[in-house]
């Protein structure tokens, strides 16, 4: 499949049935230092380092007791939480199958189903103080459509966070095209003390992904206000 190249890089042999773009992707994976480090440390994916870097900057894992991981596959983020906060209760959900993680409850189902939020909280056994979302819609190759589909997932994740977070809790989510749109940012700022965007070093430079980190959930008063607004609709 591959052979050593100059400068320590791995070169990919042309494989029967593989396209040029597939060979490029494979070469990038084989030579990506974050992929190699994730493999060496048993973290399942390079995205684990995105969460590590975000936490180093914002410190949201410190003292957490209960965590919901939306879009858990392949499990890298929950592994990071498990290692850094061993006593935290963690529940994750994904359409894709995920290999078991000791101490983590995993639901293999669509988060967008009506019953999913309730099942997550039932499995967790309490309100979370951290909601993580690394969800992204499957791409169709049309930039605007892909962005809208992913932002729909982000908005659903934010609504879930508004409904279930403990006061003072944190919401971390993957967004695209430089961050959440202005309407969503305004809504986050209504519900959290601070809202920041960041692009961790582990996120490839050519990728359009960013992360939004909303900390200091304002709690029951705003939750009750949101419920009253929904009842008026």
Automatic annotation (TrEMBL):
Superkingdom of the organism of origin: Bacteria
SUPFAM superfamilies from the UniProt entry: S-adenosyl-L-methionine-dependent methyltransferases
Any GO MF annotation of the entry: rRNA (uridine-2'-O-)-methyltransferase activity
Record-annotated Ribosomal RNA methyltransferase FtsJ domain positions: 44-217
The keyword rRNA processing is assigned to this record: yes
EC id: 2.1.1.166
Catalytic center residues: 174
Alphabetic keyword roster: Cytoplasm, Methyltransferase, rRNA processing, S-adenosyl-L-methionine, Transferase
Signal peptide: none
Positions that bind S-adenosyl-L-methionine: 75, 77, 94, 110, 134
Transmembrane domains' residue ranges: none
Enzyme class label: transferase
Keyword Transcription regulation: no
Gene3D superfamilies, per the entry: Vaccinia Virus protein VP39
GO cellular component: cytoplasm
Catalytic reactions of this protein: uridine(2552) in 23S rRNA + S-adenosyl-L-methionine = 2'-O-methyluridine(2552) in 23S rRNA + S-adenosyl-L-homocysteine + H(+)
Alphabetical list of Pfam families matching this protein: FtsJ (PF01728)
Protein localization: Cytoplasm
Spans annotated as Disordered: 1-20
Family label: Belongs to the class I-like SAM-binding methyltransferase superfamily. RNA methyltransferase RlmE family.
Function statement: Specifically methylates the uridine in position 2552 of 23S rRNA at the 2'-O position of the ribose in the fully assembled 50S ribosomal subunit.
UniProt-recorded name of the protein: Ribosomal RNA large subunit methyltransferase E
Provenance organism: Sphingomonas paeninsulae
Lineage: Bacteria, Pseudomonadati, Pseudomonadota, Alphaproteobacteria, Sphingomonadales
């Amino acid at each position: 499949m591959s052979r050593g190249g100059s400068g320590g890089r791995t070169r990919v042999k042309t494989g029967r049935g593989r396209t040029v773009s597939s060979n490029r992707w494979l070469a990038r994976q084989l030579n990506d230092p974050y992929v190699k480090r994730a493999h060496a440390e048993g973290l399942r994916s390079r995205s684990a380092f995105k969460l590590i870097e975000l936490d180093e900057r914002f410190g949201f894992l410190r003292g957490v007791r209960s965590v919901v991981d939306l879009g858990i596959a392949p499990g890298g983020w929950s592994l990071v939480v498990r290692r850094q906060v061993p006593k935290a209760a963690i529940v994750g959900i994904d359409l894709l199958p995920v290999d078991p993680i000791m101490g983590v409850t995993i639901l293999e189902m669509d988060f967008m189903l009506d019953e999913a939020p309730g099942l997550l909280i039932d499995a967790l056994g309490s309100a979370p103080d951290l909601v993580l979302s690394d969800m992204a819609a499957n791409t169709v190759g049309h930039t605007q459509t892909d962005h809208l589909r992913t932002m729909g997932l982000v908005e659903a994740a934010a609504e879930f966070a508004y409904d279930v977070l403990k006061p003072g809790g944190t919401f971390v989510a993957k967004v695209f095209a430089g961050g959440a749109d202005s309407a969503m940012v305004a809504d986050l700022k209504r519900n959290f003390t601070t809202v920041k965007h960041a692009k961790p070093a582990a996120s490839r430079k050519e990728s359009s992904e960013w992360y939004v980190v909303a900390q200091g959930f304002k709690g029951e008063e705003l939750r009750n206000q949101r419920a009253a607004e929904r009842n008026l609709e």
